[in-house]
Design a protein that fits this description.
With 160 residues, the chain is an alpha+beta fold. The chain has a single domain, classed as Aminopeptidase. It is 29% helix and 34% strand. 27% of the residues are buried.
Length: 160
């Protein structure tokens, strides 16, 4: 599927009366418990096709302080992946960060997630730290990705 993203999709902020797209959030986070730890004190945005009410992508961020925000979740529906939607979402987050007056955007991903790390680096992020034992300390059960147990989270940073 070829997609002219700017013409096909729009971004909307979720309000307290809107349905949160947990199905999309679960594409990027392992458990509902983990999502519930950040979703209620975060800003949630969805991407929808112009002719639809159903979200095809989502991103969630928290304002950390007057200078920084952290992307807590970013996910694209499987049938929309591989078309540049994720990179388009990063640009939208960058624009929103500018509107909020933020100068730094943080995102974390498993240190063994080479595809995700490469995606973030391609979109302007640089490795800037590590949260040791993040997946052990924050999830009740071990999480495996391609047979590897997740332990540490690499933090990537974009300076605006």
């Amino acid at each position: 599927m070829t997609l002219d993203i700017e013409k096909s999709l729009r971004i909307e902020r979720i309000t307290s009366t809107d349905r949160i797209p947990f199905d999309l959030l679960l594409l990027a986070d392992e458990t509902m418990e983990a999502i519930e730890r950040y979703v209620n004190d975060s800003d949630i945005y969805v991407a929808k096709q112009h002719n639809s009410c159903n979200p095809v992508a989502v991103f969630v961020f928290q304002l950390l302080n007057p200078v920084e925000l952290e992307i807590k979740n970013i996910a694209v529906a499987e049938n929309f992946q591989g078309n540049g939607v994720g990179s388009w979402l990063i640009k939208k987050i960058w624009q929103i960060a500018m509107q909020y007056g933020r100068a730094i955007i943080w995102v974390g991903t498993p240190d063994c997630a080479s595809r995700e790390i490469s995606f973030y680096e391609k979109n302007g992020f640089k490795k800037a730290g590590m949260k040791k034992n993040f997946f052990i300390d924050n999830y009740p059960d071990p999480i495996f990705d391609n047979g590897v147990q997740l332990t540490d989270m690499v933090m990537l940073k974009m300076e605006i």
